[in-house]
Amino acid sequence: MSARRTAEDRLPGDPTPREVVARTIRVDHAGEYGAKRIYEGQLAVLGRTRHGPVLQHMKAQEQVHLDYFSRAIGRRRVRPTALLPLWHVAGFVLGAGTALLGHRAAMACTVAVEEAIDEHYRAQAEALGEDEVDLRATIERFRAEELEHRDIGLEHEAEQAPAYRLLSAAIKAGCRVAIRVSERV
Length: 185
What we know:
Elements: H1 17-46, H2 52-76, H3 84-100, H4 103-127, H5 133-155, H6 164-184
């Protein structure tokens, strides 16, 4: 039995293996950029509080992820999303806005984003074949770190944020839309 390759079971009109990888790198670059901006917004509000160090830790990990995908964009000659200027503003506004509601809302934002990213990274890892074992392993490693961020958010009282379920649902929906659009635009 041969190893499964990326997009080997594609139908006419489905993305080619190259397009699958390009979309993966494009959207992950955009997502890590947005995540970094969310933490920058949260740090602008909460950076001098007792929550600053944990936010800084998570931002530093997102920077490592962003650096990896920035290099992959160049190495693989992938066009980055045209929406980076939007994610620059939207990420910061989301981070600062939730932080202005208090540390619990900032952590609720982290939990919601990381849960959406967990689903997204899991699907990407499943879609990549043995021809992309290194990319898949990196995505799995980053996914584990994103789940660590989710757990940190839960440990810091995310679920006690005002209107937690509504806030979480709105942020997850926004993330899903951003993912779909950034893959293609």
